[in-house]
Amino acid sequence: MNMEKETVRFLEEQAFRRRIDIVNLIYRAKTGHIGGSLSSADMLTALYYHVMDVEKIKAGDPNRDRFILSKGHSVEGFYSILADRGFFPREELETYAQFHTRLACHPTSKIPGVEVSTGSLGHGLPVAVGMAIALKRDNSSAHVYVVMGDGEQGEGSVWEAAMAGPTYGLDNLTAVVDRNHLQISGNTENVMRLEPLADRYRAFGWNVVCIDGNDFEEIIPALLTRVPGRPTAIISDTVKGKGVSFMENQAAWHHKVPTEEQYQQALEELNQKLKSISE
Ligand SMILES: Cc1ncc(C[n+]2csc(CCOP(=O)(O)OP(=O)(O)O)c2C)c(N)n1
Ligand SMILES: [Mg+2]
Questions:
Q1: In which element (H, E) is residue 178 found?
Q2: Which of 44, 73, 256 is the pocket-test mutation for ligand 1 (most atoms within 8 Å of CB)?
Q3: Nearest-CA neighbor of 222 among 183, 178, 182?
Q4: Helix 260-278 crosses helix 5-29 at what angle (to 10 degrees)?
């Protein structure tokens, strides 16, 4: 698909603005999961700025598309998007991870726009399967999107849901695996081998699309893929820590907090990138 250059540029700009928020939130709160928020920023941006009808979601329309951030620890990018899309005021972002905030370190359904509380890995896909079955029974045209981590694939419940999706013919379900190759303690292939991941989903009956998950020209068509009678799995190859050179592909940046110097460097790099996109 040849996407309009302006659309791609708009989405890239949004994604980098979200990355700046991610770094700010985590630096200010001195806690958070920076690497996985940065790797999945493009996917969440594509969903909330291009693919899903956000006004329907805000209105609580029964026919709204559903989104579940199954890798709930990557919450900072999600909060930034929800604020920017008007689910709650941007100023509320300043309360992230503080006492009495709604914006806890993992998303809860108390927050406007959050369908399901997540953080305990392995639950998003099973819940998404349930939602997709219910929507089908209601003859709804709504679609369910779920974003999981690749390390999260080690949870057995993911594979129970992976069996159920094709069994129930859930062509209204898209499961994304943020394939950044790292989980909390190192490379996924050393901690719990995933490959051949695409073939594994195919063997369970899914339509599988493999993409560069940091490239909107690949993300958008993948999210819009529909195959009658089958759910779609997107193996979204990404870079953990994407956008900040010294965080990229480093397991340590799963949930490290930048020092003042690292924070300044990260902001400088992200602002530089934002400038080059806008020019
Ligand atoms: C059930 C469960 N076990 C352990 C954890 C702790 N934990 C938080 S993030 C993480 C690693 C997840 O790796 P991955 O899914 O690859 O996420 P990403 O690389 O996108 O950050 C773990 C083990 C958890 N949140 N839930
Ligand atoms: Mg990972």
A1: strand 173-179
A2: 73
A3: 178
A4: 170
Residue with tokens 């698909």: 1
**Range of weakest confidence among 2-11, 244-253, 260-269:** 2-11
Atom of ligand 1 nearest to the CA of 106: 25
Any atom of ligand 1 within 6 Å of the Cβ of 72: no
> Using one digit for the tens of pLDDT, what is the confidence trace for 165-190?
999 999 999 999 999 999 999 999 99
The single-letter DSSP state of residue 160 is H
Closest CA to 35 of 47, 19, 46: 19
Ligand 1 atom with minimal separation from the 155 CA: 1
Testing ligand 1's pocket by substitution, the residue of 26, 121, 197 carrying the most ligand atoms inside 8 A of its CB is: 121
In the chain, where the domains are located: 5-278
User: What is the tens place of the pLDDT at every residue in 34-83?
Assistant: 999 999 999 999 999 999 999 999 999 999 999 999 999 999 999 999 99
pLDDT tens readout for residues 1-47: 568 999 999 999 999 999 999 999 999 999 999 999 999 999 999 99
Neighbours of 129 (CB within 10 A): 24
- pTM for this model (two decimals): 0.98
May I ask the CATH architecture of the domain 5-278? 3-Layer(aba) Sandwich (3.40)
Residues with CB under 5 A from ligand 2 (ion): 149-151, 180, 182-183
